[in-house]
């Protein structure tokens, strides 16, 4: 399995007046994300500080390829609702791993 760094960003339906856990569909998104962790797809993930207000999170994802990453996240309730989107997918060669 290949490893990817996936950055997510605000979608058109992100409400800037609300915190991340108050966004519409948070519970459904969280259940979906927990399922990806249980399935071994998402290894690490969480919100990041950034110079860009649109950035939300950085995830370490294991998948066969970029197309699989996109297919998995296309099913996320936040993607289908337009709350967030994939900003970038980078192949990631892991040299150091203290897990």
From TrEMBL:
InterPro entries recorded: Dimeric_a/b-barrel, YCII
Family named by the database record: Belongs to the YciI family.
Residue ranges that the Swiss-Prot or TrEMBL entry lists as coiled coil: none
Domain (YCII-related) ranges: 24-93
Pfam family, one: YCII
Protein species of origin: Amycolatopsis alkalitolerans
Name used for this protein in its record: YCII-related domain-containing protein
């Amino acid at each position: 399995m290949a490893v990817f760094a996936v950055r997510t960003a605000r979608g058109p339906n992100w409400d800037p007046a609300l915190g991340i856990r108050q966004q519409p569909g948070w519970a459904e998104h969280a259940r979906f994300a927990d399922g990806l962790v249980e399935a071994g797809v998402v290894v690490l993930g969480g919100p990041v500080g950034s110079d860009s207000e649109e950035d939300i999170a950085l995830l370490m994802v294991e998948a066969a390829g970029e197309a699989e990453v996109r297919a998995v996240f296309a099913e996320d309730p936040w993607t289908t609702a337009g709350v967030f989107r994939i900003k970038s997918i980078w192949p990631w060669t892991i040299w150091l791993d203290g897990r």
